[in-house]
Amino acid sequence: MTQQDAAALIARATKWAAADPDPATQAELRDLLAQVERGENGALEDLSSRFDGPLTFGTAGLRARIEAGESRMNIAVVRRAAAGIARFLTAKADGEWTPRVVIGHDARYRSHDFAVDSARVFTAAGFEVLLMPEALPTPVLSWAVRALDADAGVMVTASHNPKWDNGYKVYVGGSIEPGDGRGAQIVPPVDTEIAQAIRWDEPFEDIALADGGWTVLPAAGAEGDVEQQYVSDVVGLSPAPDASAPARDLRLVTTAMHGVGGHTLAAVLRQAGYADVHVVQEQEQPDPDFPTVEFPNPEEKGAIDLAVALAERVDADLVVANDPDADRCSAAIPTPDGWRQLRGDEVGVLLGEHVLDRAVADGVTNPVLANSIVSSRQLSALCAARGVEHEATLTGFKWIARVPGLVFGYEEALGYCVAPELTHDKDGISATVVLAELAQGLKHRGSSVLEALDAAAVRDGVYLTEQVAIRVAELSERDVLLGRLLSSTPAALGGSPVVAAENMEDGLDGLAPTAGLRLLLEDNTRVIVRPSGTEPKLKSYLEVIEPVSGAGDLARARAAAAEKIAAVKADLAAAMGL
Fold first, then answer.
1. Residue 481 has pLDDT above 90, yes or no
2. What is the pTM of this model?
3. Residue 131 bridge partners (DSSP)
């Protein structure tokens, strides 16, 4: 950094600190500026990263570290973001109606503060504001946008990100998108219009704030309890059997991963007739420090170890782990070789087939199933065999939820939408109860989830997927790695020639341009490399397909697929210089 650039950065940060409406982050930034002035090692680089430009709406809204600065999550950024959203909604309403906004939050550090400050901004703008009564799962908020006929919804959460992060998801209601987008997270052009309405240089004193006037929705046990309304709707997807049917005897282990989903999921399972449920007590209560896991993400190695240990002790049939805001879920099952955590694609295909069977039984005409472009191609093969429509979308449920006629959608990152009529987003709680129904039905028939996976592989072939995530310290490192692949694409991976190398910025399969690279190999292996939209990671999605000639050929096919994907993984790492 040149001396001139450093001086401009310091002046910019000093101006921000002087205007920061939050005494805590104001003091934090002034302390950092003092460190810069003293020439302390790394201080200038830290300051630069905090003023690397305003936050932008990524795959799941705004998301960043909780710190002072324009590139972080703090009161100053939240107020400006809320003011921009208010400006956008005011323009849309154009005096014809009073916008209604519903706001939720998780139990992370500053989540409640950010939610209340948003309520202050929206109320001062003249809106009807509904605030969740306590920290509740993201699915409750996304459900409420539709159930309460809101024009917009805001969820303060960083989902499965590390403890030092927070974020801001924005949903739109029917007045903004009356069709398939009603209740979904924002996409272009709405995200662009909101971004243009946010004035990142707006003086904080110009943002009007109300001291009250919003409505706090009814809490647990009160008349109109908003959580219980959501629970009732989810239980309706799989009601407890009546006295004439076999009781539900599935033995479940669940974990809330120190998040806000434990109470809600327990209520759903209890009311759906599951009495043999064992919770991981060490992770049941919300805790923003996430003390038992390095990262509160069920995908991360070791994150569900406590749940599996409990499952072994109680001889469970199924483990389900929600992420901290409970919009995702991971499953693990017992096998002859011990417990195995299922890939998101495995759960996605099983749930997809189960939901499709239900839709057909219910007489749904022209059902559509969908998954993200980085997810397995097995769901598409299933749909082709069944003669139903399948759609592949860009990554993120903001795209999947908008597929017309959708009855089921998923993405490999443990996100599932089993009831688009309830939530136009992924929902780990409704997915859990439908997965439990699937596992319970298999148990009653003397079968298991493992046997169902085997049957799917014999039917479709072995679709083996693996995700390789590279965590980086700075986003620029992520772009360097991707750029290296784009500029020097390998001629072959795992011994199979690359027959197509497609820059996803050019738009693939009729989808909007996005950062990434897709490689198709001669043996039908597929590799997609893209930057994460929620974390400082570069993600690689690998899939190999191995035909299966019958049940007796399954072991060979799986071994061959595993060998092939390991070779592809090694060659890809070498191509990226790792």
1. no
2. 0.94
3. 103, 216
